[in-house]
Amino acid sequence: MASAKRSGRIEELGSLFGLTACEAQVVLDMIEGRSPAAIADRRGNSIHTIRAHIRQCHQKIGAKTREEMLSRIARICL
């Protein structure tokens, strides 16, 4: 059930902000409080890949900081 809910949230983030599935998954991990290093470990990616996803998310969401990005998402989605 949790997996279906997460999939739905990934799709929602993608449609609202134009995020790819990978970017949306990174955002959800950040919402859950994971650090970029923890996200990289969890997903089996390098920290550089995760940071690139985060930069793309900031750009697409129109935020300059992690806090601003998560705040914008919370106002719209949560």
Offer a few descriptive terms.
single chain, 78 residues, mainly alpha, 5 helices, 79% helix, globular
Put the structure in a nutshell.
With 78 residues, the chain is an all-alpha fold.
Question: How does this model look, in words?
Answer:
The chain is mainly alpha-helical and 78 residues long. The chain is built from five helices and no strands. The protein has helices at residues 2-17, 21-31, 36-43, 47-61, 66-77. The mean pLDDT is 91.
SSE topology:
Elements: H1 2-17, H2 21-31, H3 36-43, H4 47-61, H5 66-77
- Decide which structural class fits the backbone: mainly alpha
Biggest sheet: strands, sense, closure? Answer: none
Number of helices: 5
- Succession of helices and strands: HHHHH
Strand content: under 5%
Quick one: overall form? globular
Estimated helix fraction? over 70%
Count the beta strands.
0
Low-confidence stretches: none
Mean pLDDT: 91
Query: Rounded to an integer, what's the Rg over CA atoms?
Result: 12 Å
> First CA to last CA: what distance?
18 Å
